[in-house]
Write a sequence for this structure.
């Protein structure tokens, strides 16, 4: 019989979630306030000795219902805080009733332990394949005066250092309430010395997921997106870190939001240096009306604990996202090496031009050709035809099917680009359905890249787009789809909603997109779906649930990709990070790097090419053939092995990381020096994750080393000459 994962002590009101790695403890305190006790490394038992210390603190009022001055919600660590009950820290919820009051006070009501993990209807979430994998604690809170109920979900996996959190609010008051803020999770921490820093992944278009580490000071720190998507600008992930924590040592708690819309992470360091962390849908421009009997389910947060630094946290996330968030036939399959025609042709292509690229791809050993933007409607530039998902008549001599058949005849798979959430004013769809555009009637909407959002919260809009896409997929043999979204949300107004319900627009949009994705990816499960949003603008765990990989950035410059891919790896697995070799000078930076450097960097992700193969010199073709052969040999190692960061490109002129297979019998090490130096230091790096007494052979030089030798003595970087130099070291057990 499997060990119980959730222990409940009814007499003391203690709930202890635990496995072999972690413990999460909460307790019902006086006056039925649900209090947080601990989240961290596993403890064998809890002896009920950490009830919160009582102390009278000025201007920290009593818990409503009793007169004990030493006991106040203003400092008490809670599992879910209420607005208007003498807790002046950031609240987890804001709820307005019909009388205009927004006061509420959640107290413990009941609990239930559920084997397995409940499905979150209409939302992406981590899942299980067997009921024994996990157990779920559902703690129900109730407002002390109104029949407003809050279900707190805590799922603990048996073999993962993960707690999955979400909430559901239920209205049984007999009246209508307005939810103006509802967090998916709260974490209150009393020991201010335990977590002193926060790590986040900020950025911008073509500079996504940079690494920022800050010391937490008194006051409130916010990480958020208000763009309608998780965004290029602030990824939906943070990590709390101890002062001494680094890649290999120290305590880390990661929090990843499984949601692709507006998000908000809030951290408050209070008057006695305690921390409160809230994660949820951004309350900016959000409200949700709940009539009597209705409920609202929040998206999920995946909390990961590590006591061995960031690399251990990342490995836990990588395995969880790869194995229990990503789904479908392609989840565990090696991903094909592709060539995309975008940077080769942009909109200017013909059947002949495409066929020449395909011919070259076949000769080089590339496994898939992807036709990007420009094949539909009357699309010759980016100012028309979005929403018209039918073939551009006459552009391709034998149509899309002719191109697909030609690609397949050459032994390659065929992929196609879509941007289903967008509409151009210059389109057949807009002329027939101008109301499909998200906008306030009578007000000229804001334009971005000459395109606008479709109101995906409306069923008829989704069905129109789904029918158009299905007509293509049913006619043309397609193996891969790249799903793009090239603007942030604006004019968030839906004609399907009443004036009082407009605060629901952004979330209903996201729920609609998820429904469309669910329908298409389920019906066409044989297709490999790849996410994209101007590159990395919607690179999040929510999207990974439907699409096992995403285009990490529109920036294909190898040097800038060092930071983008390094930062992305902190929260996301390599199997989700697509990376391509492009032409030089690079189209985004103008930089010239060698084909070797571009290949080495791109081979540290899901590998492909984005250039005009017909313009290559013979020596370049020979080198690409070697890259493809090598990547095919290490593909499983890179896409599904353990990824370990060794040296950060954010901290100096060098960077290094490595991949190790599950058996620790094979590894690949990537090292780089960005800028050349006339009098260089001799850089070295210690490897990690190997078996100490195993002998490993360098497959290029035939040199052999013991695992402990590589991990303790390390290896020198080559004496690189010139800028932007890289090296791949392939090791195998002897």
């Amino acid at each position: 019989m499997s060990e119980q994962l959730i222990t409940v002590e009814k007499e003391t009101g203690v709930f202890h979630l635990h496995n072999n790695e972690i413990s999460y403890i909460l307790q019902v305190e006086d006056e039925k306030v649900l209090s947080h006790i601990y989240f961290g490394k596993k403890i064998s038992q809890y002896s009920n000795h950490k009830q919160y210390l009582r102390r009278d603190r000025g201007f920290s009022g009593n818990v409503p219902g009793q007169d004990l001055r030493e006991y106040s919600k203003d400092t008490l660590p809670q599992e879910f805080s209420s607005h208007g009950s003498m807790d002046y820290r950031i609240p987890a919820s804001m709820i307005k009733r019909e009388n205009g009051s927004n006061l509420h006070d959640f107290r413990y009501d009941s609990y239930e332990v559920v084997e397995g993990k409940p499905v979150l209807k209409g939302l992406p979430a981590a899942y299980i394949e067997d009921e024994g994998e996990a157990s779920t604690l559902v703690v129900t809170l109730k407002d002390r005066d109104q029949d407003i109920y809050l279900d707190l979900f805590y799922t603990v996996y048996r073999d993962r250092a993960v707690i999955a959190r979400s909430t559901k609010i239920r209205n049984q008051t007999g009246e209508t309430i307005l939810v103006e803020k509802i967090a998916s999770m709260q974490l209150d921490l009393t020991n201010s010395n335990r977590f002193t820093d926060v790590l986040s992944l900020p950025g911008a278009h073509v500079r996504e997921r940079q690494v920022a580490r800050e010391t937490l000071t008194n006051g409130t720190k916010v990480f958020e997106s208000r763009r309608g998507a998780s965004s290029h600008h602030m990824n939906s992930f943070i990590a709390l870190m101890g002062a001494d924590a680094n890649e290999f040592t120290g305590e880390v708690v990661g929090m990843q939001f499984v949601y692709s819309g507006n998000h908000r992470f809030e951290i408050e360091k209070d008057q006695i240096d305690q921390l409160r962390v809230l994660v949820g849908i951004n309350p900016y421009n959000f409200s949700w009306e709940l009539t009597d009997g209705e409920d609202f389910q929040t998206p999920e947060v995946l909390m990961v604990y590590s006591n061995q630094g960031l690399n251990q946290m990342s490995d836990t996330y990588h395995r969880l996202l790869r194995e229990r968030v990503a789904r479908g036939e392609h989840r565990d399959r090696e991903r094909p090496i592709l060539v995309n025609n975008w940077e080769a042709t942009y909109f200017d292509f013909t059947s002949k031009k495409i066929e020449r690229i395909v011919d070259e791809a076949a000769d080089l050993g590339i496994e898939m050709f992807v036709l990007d933007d420009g094949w539909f409607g009357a699309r010759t530039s980016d100012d028309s035809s979005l929403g018209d998902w039918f073939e551009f008549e006459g552009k391709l001599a034998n149509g899309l099917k002719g191109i697909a058949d030609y690609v397949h005849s050459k032994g390659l798979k065929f992929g196609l680009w879509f941007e289903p959430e967008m509409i151009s004013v210059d389109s057949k769809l807009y002329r027939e359905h101008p109301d499909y555009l998200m906008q306030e009637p009578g007000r000229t909407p804001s334009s971005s890249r000459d395109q606008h959002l479709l109101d995906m919260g409306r069923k008829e809009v989704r069905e129109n787009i789904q029918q158009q896409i299905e007509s293509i997929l049913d006619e043309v043999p397609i193996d891969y789809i790249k799903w793009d979204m090239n603007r942030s949300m604006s004019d968030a107004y839906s004609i399907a909603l009443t004036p009082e319900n407009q605060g629901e627009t952004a979330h209903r949009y996201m729920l609609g997109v998820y429904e469309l994705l669910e329908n298409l990816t389920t019906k066409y499960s044989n297709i490999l779906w790849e996410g994209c949003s101007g590159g990395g603008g919607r690179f999040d765990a929510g999207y990974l649930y439907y699409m096992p990989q995403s285009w990490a950035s529109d920036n294909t410059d190898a040097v800038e990709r060092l930071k983008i891919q390094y930062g992305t790896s902190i929260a996301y697995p390599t199997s989700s990070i697509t990376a391509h070799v492009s032409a030089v000078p690079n189209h985004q930076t103008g930089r010239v790097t060698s084909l070797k450097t571009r290949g080495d960097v791109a081979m540290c992700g899901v590998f492909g090419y984005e250039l005009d193969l017909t313009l290559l010199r013979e020596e370049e073709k020979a080198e690409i053939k070697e890259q493809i052969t090598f990547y095919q040999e290490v593909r499983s190692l890179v896409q599904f092995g353990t990824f370990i960061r060794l040296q950060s490109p954010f901290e100096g002129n060098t960077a290094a990381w490595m991949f190790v297979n599950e058996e620790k019998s094979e590894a690949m090490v990537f090292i780089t020096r960005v800028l050349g130096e006339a009098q260089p230091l001799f850089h070295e790096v210690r490897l990690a994750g190997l078996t100490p007494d195993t002998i490993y052979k360098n497959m290029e030089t035939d040199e052999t080393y013991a695992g402990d030798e590589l991990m303790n003595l390390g290896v020198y970087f080559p004496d690189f000459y010139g800028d932007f130099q890289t090296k791949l070291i392939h090791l195998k057990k002897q």
The mean pLDDT is 97.
